[in-house]
Amino acid sequence: MKFVIVGYGRVGSRTARVLREEGHDVTVVDNNDKKVDRARDEGFEAVLGDGGTESVLREAGVEGADAVGGLTGDPNINFAACMLGKEYDCRTVMRISEDYRQEIYERYADDVDEIIYPERLGAAGAKTALLGGDFNAIGDLTDQLRLTTVTVPDGAPIVGDHVANIDLGADGRVYAHGREREPMTIPLPGTVVEPGDQLALLTERNALERVRSKLLG
């Protein structure tokens, strides 16, 4: 898949690296020449300019992209990049600050495919959102362990179960839960799984398919 990442700061750079490690084609856009140089030094195609400008995104290859991530620290640039991405039929993921008022959050949420913010697993949430999948191994923690996120679909066997009662045995464990468009947190004992919820897991590398089967059927 082809991705355009606007912003090569902490979240954008990590997201770009993880996507590339999984074999995806990533182009970076940033208006800071030092960050663009760093991206190029790290092997990325990179474009210097305002990611909220159509000519810059076209130079970055938005016409053939599957998704655009507006991951700068400036929500205005992020929103503009996403709206332009929509014009080219891209999936759009926008980063905002955690302290945005609910009505502003909802306005953005109506216009883009998904909103992420640093407290929502940062680059992990961005990468998962860009791919749009329901089960994504987002990074290696050790030679044996992976950090994985799951979006629970309708009909999954765990719908209706208490998060605290999900037993993966030696294959891993659930360590965070979040409702749709909400940050992931440590689940309370009474939290029940609903369709659309997200779970963050620690899993054994060789157990991903078993875990997927247990959680999603």
TrEMBL record:
Q: Name one GO cellular component term.
A: plasma membrane
User: Domain RCK C-terminal spans what residues?
Assistant: 135-217
Q: Which UniProt keywords apply?
A: Ion transport, NAD, Potassium, Potassium transport, Transport
Q: Does the keyword Membrane apply?
A: no
Can you name one GO molecular function term for this protein? Answer: potassium ion transmembrane transporter activity
* Residue stretches making up the RCK N-terminal domain: 1-116
Q: Which InterPro entries match?
A: K_uptake_TrkA, NAD(P)-bd_dom_sf, RCK_C, RCK_C_sf, RCK_N, Trk_Ktr_HKT_K-transport
Pfam families assigned: TrkA_C, TrkA_N
Is NAD found in the keyword set?
A: yes
Primary role:
Part of a potassium transport system.
The protein's name is: TRK potassium uptake system protein
Taxonomic lineage is: Archaea, Methanobacteriati, Methanobacteriota, Stenosarchaea group, Halobacteria
